[in-house]
Amino acid sequence: MKGFAFRADPEEKVAEIGFDDVHPRNGGGSFVWVHLDGRDGETAAWLADRPELTPAIVAALTAVETRPRTEEMGGGAIINLRGLGATPEDDPDKLVSVRLWAGRGRVFSVGYRSLAAMDAVCRTMAAGKVRDPGDLIAVLAVTITLSLDDEVAALGDLLDDCEVRIEPDQHAYGMRRLIGKARADAIAYRRFVVPQRTALERLAALDAEWLEEDDRTHLRDAADRFARMGEELEAVRERAALMHEQLTDLRAEQIDSRTLLLSIVALIFLPLTFITGLLGMNVEGIPFAHAPWAFSGVVLLCVLIAGAIGAYFIRSHWLKR
Known about the structure:
Elements: E1 3-8, E2 15-16, E3 31-37, H1 43-48, H2 55-61, E4 69-73, E5 76-84, E6 95-103, E7 106-111, H3 118-126, H4 133-165, H5 173-204, H6 213-279, H7 294-315
Parallel strand pairs: 3-7
Antiparallel strand pairs: 1-2, 1-3, 4-5, 5-6, 6-7
Helix pairs in contact: 3-4, 4-5, 4-6, 5-6, 6-7
């Protein structure tokens, strides 16, 4: 069966244990954390054999689709959290989920994808800094928050850079794609960041003896960070939409200016084309057809007409001086 298990005894070091050793010695202040891979076919059966886990808890731990939440269940609490995945190229969602049931002296967690924060939490657990369920959930929430905070800040920095680079004479096709991706990422993150704040706030206010005051403080801090990230993601989404509109307006202005330039050039050459076409007819009676100065005269006439039309457009502010 895929996963791992830790046990922290009051007077002993934290040790990684086998799944068969989860039940023994779990008493007298010891703490056990079991994390399982939900894609393993044996996970559901192993959880169902645990006497402290009711069928409702097992169903909640093995649910495929989840949203961040906290709910009292079976003498403990079901906590669903979301964080960055360890393999984003293989994950369908921007944030992958971890499902936990926390009760006195033990935590069972299940994940269907690899959570990027899990390695850091395991190192903290192995270092002996996690001694109870409250410590574990607080460390997990804070670690998820720190890693996600960097991603949200990177989205804001990306938009800051794009705002500096926007210029009227710039094509900005690549920038349009960057802005669109930043907006899509902000929407995907915000989908889970906002309910995760609510879940952590509810967990911090939960009437549970395994939650100490310092754990509640860390959970409230994590909830505040998620609240701030939710506001930043909303700002990123709005800024990206405004920048996309700005790029669209700049592109429309470029098209209008180029269309105007082409129209002016066409208007200038229209009478010249008429004159040259009229004098180029292969019929008798063309004035000055045999005069030696005729070609130079026609060229000079065309230059004067083009200059007059161009001066009119400049005076009418159709063309910049």
